[in-house]
Amino acid sequence: MVTRVQIAETPGAKARLPVLLSAGAMTAFETALGAPALTRRASVERIAARLDRPAMLALDPGLRRIPESKCSFSRQQEWARQSLATHDLQWRVARHFEGMWTDDGPLMTVVVKRSGRPDVVLVSTSQKVMMLPWKRLSSPTFDHQVLARTPDEWRPALSEALNALLPKGERSRQRFQIGWLQGRLRNELALEALGCAPGREVSAR
User: Fold this and answer.
1) CB-side exposure of 204: number of CA atoms within 13 Å?
2) Is the dihedral of CA 132, 27, 171, 184 positive or negative?
3) Assigned domain for 203 exists
4) What are phi and psi of 161, to 5 degrees?
5) Which of 12, 53, 54, 200 has the most other CB atoms within 10 Å of its CB?
6) Which structural domain, as residue segments, surrounds residue 31?
7) Does the CA dihedral 71-74-76-78 come out positive or negative?
């Protein structure tokens, strides 16, 4: 059996020339594709478990804000430690999946073609890490109304397997990396620590 995976970041984008993918990467992708989706909470827990807590607490002593923070750097470090003890990494990952940014509108469509079987179409417009969540559609031709009424599928393992299929140098690979999320969360923690004030509380769902 031959599995073909076509990935496009924009509608109508010109397909790249076929690339032979490794058997190991394709096996991991097939396994993730056939596995049941997780709950949102389970996905948050899985992602949070991969974050490096000491790296999160490595604040930049040169970070400044206007007006100047009244908190000393040692106080900022202590506040950051207390904050992670109160609002742990799961809380921060859950908060990451809330809201959106206005200057970023990603779109990725994954079409899986297998001989004798229906195509599998996965679409994500998520700005978040691993482009979670995904939506499973019946056709690569869709509009915003179709996306809006299609249930979310939380599939971090599928995102990880898909990342292994993306060519080196692909812009979208960065968003699939845990390091991308860790950098964002560390910056958020550092900025909060400048004011030594708690952030908005959000619960994992």
Assistant:
1) 18
2) positive
3) no
4) -70, -40
5) 53
6) 3-42+105-175
7) negative
